[in-house]
Write a structure and sequence with these properties.
Elements (H helix, E strand, L loop, with lengths): L37 H27 L2 E2 L2 H4 L6 E2 L3 H8 L1 H32 L4 H16 L2 H11 L6 H6 L10 H30 L2 H9 L4 H12 L1 H16 L3 H6 L12 H11 L3 H28 L5
Antiparallel strand pairs: 1-2
Length: 323
């Protein structure tokens, strides 16, 4: 005795090719009128803006760095000539470039570490205080963050002015000049950079802490963990993706500081003792009319930031972090 077994075919909507099957084995239907290019059409306006504001200027920066481009070429008195890597060779033979590069790296590292430390500490503090002081701290921090760099730098110069500044009067330092000495001038600029940068870290990390389940923190407290141990062993691993973002942003911002140095040290300090790469590029390009050398410095800065960012992300991926 035989039995005929009839197998029903799936609906036509589920038999299309190139569609990912769901858990039941059937392929989901494609939305009518939806194509693979639809997401790119939505992104097209933003990509066009980025190409105009980012890609084209970088292309021009790199192009000028390979040319002989000074005031004579700008005014049309001499033709523009191709120099290849000569501008980079001239730059790397300049001893001042390496001194400025070292000062920039050390200054940026100090700014990044200080910004992250203060921002994370205040973010934890925001979770421990009541609503009114928390709101006051948030408003004060956001006010510092919203202050333009030129305005903030001018205010800090006035506060530490040797003749009229209130800081010297309160500390009893008389007419001490904070910008005369190289280290004290860098420290003064560092205070201003951290003051206008820590609110971003504080707000971002605070939002991440609020997203952590309260049961996790309560369990750590019941186990006898201190606040430092909770931050190091519980919060930091859970907030690592957020910390990656704020760290990379801080590195980029602090490595290319210009306004604070230029305003507070009057263009780079006495005899250029407080010069950083951005100010150094400005001096070469506009004060000396060596636009090709200034462009070469800009390209070097771009490559350094790309390498640092990629190495940092690679190290995190080796540790098993999903970014």
């Amino acid at each position: 005795m035989t039995h005929d077994i009839t197998v029903d075919k799936p609906p036509a909507a589920l038999r299309g090719r190139g569609r990912r099957p769901n858990r039941s084995g059937a392929r989901p239907p494609r939305r009518p009128g939806r194509s693979a290019w639809t997401p790119w059409l939505y992104l097209a306006p933003a990509l066009v803006v980025l190409a105009g504001l980012l890609v084209y200027p970088i292309y021009q920066l790199g192009l000028i760095s390979f040319l002989e481009y000074t005031q004579a070429q700008v005014s049309g008195g001499e033709p523009t000539t191709f120099k290849g890597l000569d501008n980079y060779a001239t730059l790397f033979r300049d001893e001042q470039f390496w001194q400025v590069l070292l000062a920039t790296v050390l200054f940026a590292a100090a700014c990044v570490v200080s910004t992250l430390a203060i921002g994370c500490a205040l973010a934890v503090l925001l979770t421990r205080i009541r609503a009114v002081p928390r709101l006051a701290l948030m408003m004060a921090a956001l006010g510092a963050w919203a202050t333009p760099a030129v305005t903030g730098s001018t205010v800090w110069v006035f506060l530490f002015d040797p003749d009229f500044g209130p800081v010297n009067k309160v500390l009893g330092l008389g007419d001490h000049s904070w910008t005369y000495d190289r280290l004290s001038a860098f420290a003064l600029v560092l205070f201003e950079v951290v003051w206008c940068s820590f609110p971003f870290v504080m707000v971002t990390v605070y939002a991440g802490i609020r997203a952590v389940p309260s049961e996790v923190l309560e369990a750590a407290s019941l186990d006898g963990a201190s606040q430092w141990r909770i931050w190091r062993s519980v919060l930091m691993p859970m907030l690592r993706p957020i910390l990656v973002v704020v760290t990379i942003q801080s590195i980029i911002w602090d490595f290319k500081v210009f306004t604070q140095i230029y305003v507070m040290t009057n263009g780079g300090g006495i005899a250029g003792q407080n010069m950083v790469l951005n100010v150094y590029a400005y001096q070469k390009a506009f004060a000396s009319s060596q636009y090709s050398l200034g462009s070469a410095i800009g390209v070097v800065m771009l490559l350094i930031l790309l390498v640092v960012t990629l190495v940092y992300l690679r190290l995190l991926r080796r540790q098993g972090e999903e970014l």
